[in-house]
Write a sequence for this structure.
């Protein structure tokens, strides 16, 4: 990647990009390294992608960092991942704060060590007034868990059956004050949702690339956003001619 490269201005920018950062293990294996080296490289890459999002004017970036199912991985990998998170907060918080990044978390913090929980909460508090980019970290997050918790809370609040609407359900999710993702990017070629934002993904555009997460750089992000700009989002409707999006070669509209 050429750091001084000039990018053609983006025509349509997604408000919210969500990323399933996958392929750290395979990136490491391809280099004869342990899986944790892949996770470290993935974390290094995150810094570059955050900076690119700030530059491209993205408002929300959600990253899937640890799923409710990832606890099933070998103990050594799970504790290594926890250490990496701690390290990242220690090393990156000042810089993220300087860039105007607001940190948020979706998922459950309770299962993390108290020291790590405190660090995460402190980082969220420290950055709460920033508004350049909202970085929403899905850690110990699962879409089914999120919906289950929402149902429990609605029942606990005494909501009546006839009062339940999709809008109300949205207000009980971890993402209550975040718009749905416009585009979900999954690296490493897997074409599955893996329990990520299963409610919020209803009308997201999907972008799958074979690139492993540690190699998903600014150029790749730019490509994904350009691809998004040429998607026609129909939400089940038939578009009016004025809403039609030109082809990637910008010769003719597609509808
Ligand atoms: C994604 O990379 C990171 C986490 C799930 C924490 P993986 O660790 O899933 O990498 P692969 O899929 O094994 O290559
Ligand atoms: C999804 O990746 C979870 C994260 C990226 C944090 P996985 O690697 O855990 O997903 P599966 O097991 O391939 O579906
Ligand atoms: Mg994986």
């Amino acid at each position: 990647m050429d750091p001084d490269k000039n990018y053609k201005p983006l025509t349509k920018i997604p408000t919210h990009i969500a990323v399933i950062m996958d392929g750290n293990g395979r990136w490491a294996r391809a280099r004869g390294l342990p899986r944790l080296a892949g996770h470290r490289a993935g974390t290094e890459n995150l810094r570059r992608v955050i900076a690119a999002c700030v530059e491209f004017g993205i408002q929300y970036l959600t990253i899937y960092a640890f799923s409710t199912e990832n606890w099933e991985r070998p103990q050594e990998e799970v504790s290594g991942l926890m250490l990496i998170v701690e390290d990242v907060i220690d090393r990156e918080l000042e810089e993220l704060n300087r860039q105007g990044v607001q940190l948020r978390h979706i998922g459950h913090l309770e299962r993390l060590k108290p020291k790590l929980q405190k660090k995460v909460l402190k980082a969220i508090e420290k950055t709460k007034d920033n508004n350049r980019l909202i970085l929403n970290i899905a850690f110990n997050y699962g879409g089914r868990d999120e919906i289950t918790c929402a149902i429990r809370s609605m029942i606990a609040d005494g909501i009546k059956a006839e009062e339940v609407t999709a809008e109300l359900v949205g207000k009980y999710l971890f993402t209550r004050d975040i718009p749905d993702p416009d585009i979900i990017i999954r690296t490493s070629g897997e074409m599955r949702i893996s329990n990520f934002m299963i409610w919020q993904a209803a009308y997201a555009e999907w972008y799958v690339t074979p690139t492993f997460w540690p190699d998903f750089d600014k150029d790749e992000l730019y490509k994904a956003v350009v691809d998004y700009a040429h998607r026609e989002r129909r939400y089940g409707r038939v578009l009016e001619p004025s809403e039609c999006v030109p082809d990637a070669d910008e010769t003719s509209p597609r509808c």
User: Anything to note?
Assistant: The radius of gyration is 19 Å. The chain has seven helices and six strands. The first strand starts at residue 16 and ends at 20. Residues 16-254 form a domain with the Undecaprenyl pyrophosphate synthetase fold (CATH 3.40.1180.10).
